[in-house]
Design a protein that fits this description.
Helix 1 runs antiparallel to helix 2. The chain is built from three helices and six strands, in the order H-H-E-E-H-E-E-E-E. It has a six-stranded mixed sheet. The chain has one domain: Nuclear Transport Factor 2, Chain: A, CATH 3.10.450.50. It is globular. A hairpin with a 2-residue loop joins strand 4 and strand 5. By secondary structure, it is an alpha+beta fold.
Length: 135
């Protein structure tokens, strides 16, 4: 019995690390405009609610990636909680720098992402982003 609990804990830790790495890859995709990585992370039915309340799909986000100039993005903190063996929630804070008209502006977001394991692969299905500061 103890062996089963140990294996379950190891499996949970592995899943948490996988989701943390997907989160890191997602955030790092913005400065590099890496649409291939975003396509891999987002499920086809992915939906994100932006800081201004706009509902965006996988296609919207990938198509808009080249319209913004993200200089850098850094994860300040991240927490992953597994709700079931197939559903995980990311709660994180990031700091980012955008460039517009040659001027750089710094901001901070917090967000929650929902990941679901489908066909033994973790994928982001929902996200909600809140803008905390921008100057």
């Amino acid at each position: 019995m103890l062996l089963l609990f140990g294996q379950a804990a190891l499996s949970q830790n592995k899943d948490i690390e996988i989701i943390k790495n997907l989160n890191k890859d997602w955030i790092n995709s913005y400065p590099t405009k890496d649409t291939t990585t975003l396509s891999r992370i987002f499920a086809d039915d992915f939906v994100l609610i932006s800081p201004n309340g706009v509902k965006m799909t996988k296609k919207n986000i990938i198509n808009n990636l080249h319209k913004q100039e993200t200089v850098s993005s850094k994860i300040d903190s991240v927490d992953v909680k597994l709700l079931t063996e197939n559903v995980g929630v990311v709660t994180a804070y990031i700091t980012f720098v955008l460039r517009s008209d040659g001027k750089e502006m710094t901001g901070q977001n917090c967000y929650q992402d929902i990941y679901v394991r489908r066909k033994n692969k973790w994928m982001a299905v929902n996200a909600h982003v809140t803008l905390l500061s921008f100057k």
